[in-house]
Amino acid sequence: MDSEQYGKEMLDLPFKNKLYRFALKFVGSTYDAEDILQELLIKIWNRKEQYADIENKEAWCMTVTRNLCIDKTRAKKVSSMDVSDYHHLSDGADTQDKVMEKDERMSSIMVLVNQLPEKQREIVFLRDVEGYTYQEIADLTDNSLDFVKVSLHRARKSLKDQLIKRNFKKYNT
After folding, report:
1. Do 7 and 64 fall into the same domain?
2. CA distance 153 to 124
3. pTM above 0.70?
4. What is the pLDDT of residues 72-91, one digit of tens each?
């Protein structure tokens, strides 16, 4: 495969948007997320022979993206993440007060999610926002399947306990 054809194929990664969303969620800046995606493409280009032999390219790219995000975050000394940009609740018929109520509820939940330990926050995002399976999350985060399940359970339990503690009532649409 010549370089031009390989370059076109590389730019057409079918999961490029998912990688971008993951990086954006992790670093919180569109510029940093774009930089991370560009760094990933450079890594793929520099290792094109090895990349062609990778069986699960999406998992490999997610792992590299995750590592680049961690490096970028450590370099900036940023410790908090905001996932509120990924939760758009809209049913089209809501009045302004219902929209505001939903936003307030989601903000309260996001505050609690952002207080979770980094590993739990990452696993919650991968499972509940991106929809990855437990096994895929285990592969992406280099953890055992049991660790992923236990971490997700603990994170959800912690969120539930905090919501109950704050007298957060279930919202009926």
Report:
1. yes
2. 9
3. no
4. 888 876 445 555 555 554 55
